[in-house]
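Entry for the shared binder. Reason: the reviewer on the internal report wants the predicted structure included alongside the sequence.
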Amino acid sequence: MEEVVPQSHPYVPRDLELPGYVPVVLSQSTIVGVYLSSSLIVVSIIWIISGRFQKISKIDKLLMCWWAFTGLTHAILEGYFVFSPEFYKDKTAFYLAEVCKSLVDDACKQKLAGKEYSKGDSRYAARDAAVVSVEGITAVLEGPACLLAVYAIATKKSYNYILQFAISLGQLYGTAVYFVTSLLDGDNFAASMFYYYAYYVLANSFWVVIPSLIAIRCWKKICAVCAVQGQKKNKLQ
């Protein structure tokens, strides 16, 4: 019986066991290029479609683009990671698996799903319970909710702001758990300082800054409506 020699991997910690690991085939430029170009196409399509709806402000158009982009990122990239536990064994150079292998470092997620991302956070390749749980909830619940937000903004639904507020809080909570659990576990999951700051810090920062701004905006909108309703009730009394 032949002895199976374990395949070395680029992730940290170096003693992380990934039996059957297959190195990344696609180049980093290809992985990032496909992700960025796909995102640009999605944003462009939503921007054009939003122009067909009357009386939608530029801010709402930008929000529609953001929710479409982040919703598809959650559902497709993070969804693939959650439901494909052995992505690091993929030998077909399937794009999503390659991203997970390269970016296993960054949850999410900008999260580019796959082998490449794992270099920023090896907890993806190791199937860390906290990361899988956060990504699973994000992919299954927040992904569809983001796409619903696009529809709610376009059609001016009454639940428009409360939905955006709820999703933003969910994204902030998920990102907080992601960072805090990393710190508690030693914050030593990146293959290099480049991957640490490019994938782990910079990529995730978008899901901190943008949801925060949206949450503040929605909070003000909701408070304004409640204030008007309160004034109407006082006049009737």
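Summary line for the report: Helices lie at 28-50, 58-83, 95-103, 129-155, 160-184, 193-236.
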